[in-house]
Amino acid sequence: MRYATREIRLASALVEAADTLVEGFEAMRYLQRLSDHCVELLNARAAGVMLIDGGRSVSLAASSRHERMALDLLEAQHGGGPCLESYGSGRPVPPVSIRVAHAAARWPDFTERALRHDIVTTFAVPLRRREHLLGALNVFGPTLPADTDPAPELQVAQALADAAALGLQNRRAYVQYRTLSGQLQEALSSRVRIEQAKGMLAERWGVRADHAFGALRQYARRRRLTLDQVANTVIEGAEDDAGLRREIDEDSTGPA
Description:
Blueprint: H1 2-18, H2 27-42, E1 46-53, E2 56-62, H3 67-75, H4 82-89, E3 93-97, H5 98-103, H6 108-116, E4 121-129, E5 132-141, H7 151-205, H8 209-222, H9 227-235, H10 241-246
Antiparallel strand pairs: 1-2, 1-5, 3-4, 4-5
């Protein structure tokens, strides 16, 4: 029953990790929830995520349980640690005894600080989506593993990390597409406004549409405004009509 319960909780955590296409998404809160799930599912003391770009830590998030301690341990890895090692290899770093690692001078800054926090063991798994690495998930334990086979714990952590990497990449693509869609919509709306203003001026002045467009364009250039800004003043009836008409006599004709 204990394992069935953990499987249900893991499934719920994986579904939550995939749910990133929502309004008000906050990456740090999302990664904190991921860390919280690790603590709950793995009976860890704390957990944290290090996002890495170009070999350097760019963002840290930690479980709500012992958050300050977890952040301290993540920050201590600037000179090396399980997160950077896992990220560098693209593979999990199996559970390591902090005392053994410290005695062997492995990650000295990190292990010294971990001992101060009474952390007994740690392991890390990469946040990856296929070949694309985003960072690493680090788990901090209060005791050495009772089971000599660390595979189940690593598999649970890796499943969560993989789900988070997928969620973050989907979120990034979603934001990019929304931004592009907004830019395209604005460009289309701007074009419509310019065409409308051009038609209004051509009808008012009794000139060809290309001459009206030339006046809009030249007026905008002289005053360092965008065509859309000038077109808006025409549509709203707030334009400098005399200034625009003077541009008709300039060599400012352009495509209709």
